[in-house]
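We include this case.
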Amino acid sequence: MAFANAILTKDPTFGVIGLVPCAIGGTKISNWGKGTFHYKQLVMRAAASLQYGGTIQALLWYQGESDTVSEEDAKSYKAKLQRLFLNLRHDLQSPTLPIIQVALASGSGVFIDTVREAQLGIDLLNLRTVDAKGLPLQPDTLHLSTPAQVRLGEMLAETFLQFLPSTGPISSPTPIGGVGSCCNPMLQFLMVPLSSMMVLR
């Protein structure tokens, strides 16, 4: 993945990077609310990633295209997204967990600007926004082109490295070993919904 490759290019001593994908395409922000299936799966995967000594370093979030179809969804997006971030920090027991979200480059409907304004307007501690606007799209005018995806990964990596040293990682008390272990004593994981993903270290 471009994100991990970019980190290791900039810092070869960073160690092993684990990415915990939680993405589900075509979902609305309401599908990720606390108590929903997707939310429970995200938290469960995050917990499973810690079993062999990993540390969650950040949450990467790229979602919102489906919320541009309805004006009601677009207008309620900011409150729902902010609540989601706060709930995740609470349930992952990491109140200062770094979060890097992506501001939309495109959308499925006409309310793209409304959702983008919501994303850019969220003001939380340890939250950074990477703006994807202007990156090349595929012919469907919705999805990023392959070169654009690579560039976005690099942008996310540059932003992530600005957070280090981490202010509040989640670590597991279990010693590293067994399945999933390696020779490096630091196993790094990143959780990311692209819609979502976690970065582990």
